[in-house]
Amino acid sequence: MQPIRTFNVSPALPPQLEPLRILAYNLYWDWNVEIKELFRRLDRDLWESSRHNPVSMLGMISQARLQEMAEDEGFLAHMERAVRQLDEYLKERTWYRKQRSALSNHQSTNGDTSTHPQKECFAYFCAEYGLVDCLPIYSGGLGVLAGDHLKSASDLGLPLVAVGLLYQEGYFAQYLNADGWQQERYPVNDFYNMPLHLERNSDGSELRIEVEYPGRTVYARVWRVQVGVVPLYLMDTNIEPNNPYDHDITDELYGGDLDMRIHQEMMLGIGGVRMLKALGYKPTMYHLNEGHSGFLILERIRILMQEQGLTFAQAKQVAQSTQAFTTHTPVSAGFDLFPPDKAMYYVGHYAHTYGLSREEFLGLGRENTGDLASPFSMAALALKTSSFVNGVAQLHGEVSRVMFHSLWKGLPIAEVPITAITNGVHARSCVAKATQELYDRYLGPSWSEKGAKDPLWERVLSIPDEELWRNHERSRSELVVFVRDRLVKHLRGRGASPVEISQAQEVLDPGVLTIGFARRFATYKRATLFLHNLERIKQILSSNKHKQVQFVIAGKAHPKDIPGKELIREIIRLTRENGISSSVVFIPDYDIHVARLMVAGCDVWLNTPRRPREASGTSGMKAAMNGLPNLSVLDGWWDEADYVRTGWPIGHGETYEDAEYQDEVEANALYELVEKEVVPLFYDRDAEGIPRRWIAKMKDAIRLNCPFFNTARMVREYATRAYFPASDRNFVMTGNNYAPAKELAAWKESMFQHWYNIKIVSVDVSATEQIQVNQKVSVKALINLAGLTPNDVQIELYQGAVNADGEITNGTSVVMQHQGKDQQVDSIYTADILYSASGLQGLSLRVLPKHENLSSPHELGLISWA
Ligand SMILES: *Cc1c(COP(=O)(O)O)cnc(C)c1O
Description:
The longest helix is centred in the C-terminal third of the chain and has 44 residues, at 711-754. It contains 29 helices and 28 strands. The protein is α/β, with parallel strands linked by helices and 866 residues long. The site of pyridoxal-5'-phosphate has 14 residues, from helix 9, helix 25 and helix 26.
């Protein structure tokens, strides 16, 4: 039955408890122990059953309980402390202000104060956000990373505004049928009972965004999630007068077919830009976290053309100078690709607006513009229109440079302008409450934001072993209790037999070495690798009564990923058939809450991806912050961690052609490590039963990983390396009525016109074939600049060792000095170089574009070699 009217009924709080409403609507409660504890204290059962949702809790709690708390002085004092902490938090975000203080003192020559940092605004776009478990609009690592990014941006006081979609169904809840086959349930998100504000116009009506789709306009309303000082705006198309199909655009995260995917990405990118505009934001740079939001570039260019009267080239220049793009996958199959006709059908009208032909327009999204059969790639679009591009770990940066080398033909792979900013995790969100209090006590309350150089990390060594260990053992017990409860609940839910239920009540042993593995069930992550040799694993699990091992496994397979689901069923089947289902346990419905319990309560964190398929991985960082050693293939972040002191590497970073052989080798390496290293170290106890050497490793895991693999460091890196420079370029480009942008666009065009006429006439080297280390070599080159001036180009010597293929590897470059003209024609360049290494060394010369407003010499993709 359809209601004739709907009402949004809000809870009636006693006036003394009104502050709870304010606390509930700022997600800061998630990473402030005091505030979280306050809500837990209000009603423990409701707190759990509401999935830790203070808003729905306030709506469901009985008036009697509210009255009782309104008269409880202890509670009221606790609430006051919580309110004070939120107030202080909102006021005291200073890192950004210090970094950009130069800006606020700076007055540009024409008295323009637009350079004031308060006017700076960084727009962050992502298709999913994993912030708290009661807001299930994420599917995995990308979302949790984006959520952590916002939390740290808030901690640092960045003027960041985030954009996303509010999914009606969110990500699915997982349960298993009797056969171990994953089933999905899509709980419907009740937005009015979540920490969301509906954005309204000044007359009280809902704020609406409009985006044109073929033959119709689609409307979205806007919800705000307040993440500390950072607002996250989410669009929701589930409103009238949208047609039923359009209602579903924001129905399901990554749901539907390719057409639905384009619909979603248009709303995210195009709708997102319009939404920020409608809300009054004027971003000074844009950060695309993964390519899903790539269409935003099309809309930005349109607005710049129509509102500022710029040409396509000028508008594209402004957009590019102020855009950063982060790629998250190491395989090209991971990118969204749309067939050319489909791309034209949905966004082809932009070609018309820009005055571009079909192929010129599609070329914006093609790695190779000349390949007219190739699809429109969101990653190519983002890459070609960004001035800062990064992968999410050092190894992933390397892999990405190879993967996208074709966009910078002629450039040595090492110089492909894709850098890396290694991921992190938000410390206060992933470290268990009791452990945070332990760190607060021994390291001081600012540990969660301190870098590696800070001496406080040495104080980890002074945490008493007994205290650290007792705390950890408590976490393990809590995990075991949680696992049993959850299993029982799920078994009851599917009507399992009393025998099965009573077995579930006894799985795991709170005193046994517990290895955790939790991640999306994609085949490359090889969740079943540890079961590769069943006899071997059975031995490990129970060979010695006093040195047992148990495994806790969790993770969801994408609903359409049949091989991924097979893996889950395989684990269930193998553990049952081999009688090991009480020591190898799969926890259904992995989410942020389960993750937090696991990374605190396991003893070792296992990861077995096929290198280099794991771009970064972050759950291992969460585990390390809680003091867990990692046991992992050298991939993603682990490849750059201190994997000897803070855990164990599986293998040595090899890559394999033969997958079966690889599984065999790496499974054996895993068994060897568990038997010979992990188990002996864990069970090596002193007279008081304390594993001193194990605890030493835990402390190393904390003190060496915490300071680096966190989002405080990561967001500072994004800010200083990407956001500030892009924002600075924005002030330059838009100043003086866009004159610098116009000039740069015109300059680029002339570069493309003249570039291929540049001639390297001669290169003279003052050396014979045989030279000695530290001998100076002088080089003189004559270059015909073909209508360009010495200000337009940089001439560089490029030198390095020559490999077996006769190519210079790991080259370095030396800028040559312009020395005037030779007979009024060719430009003379000279440089001296000093050879510091012996062996066969090669020397070459190259020409690169040069302009003060370029983000890098590689922005045009032009390079000429001698
Ligand atoms: C941290 C986290 C992830 C990402 O973990 P990976 O190691 O990158 O696979 C996924 N889902 C949840 C719920 C998480 O908390």
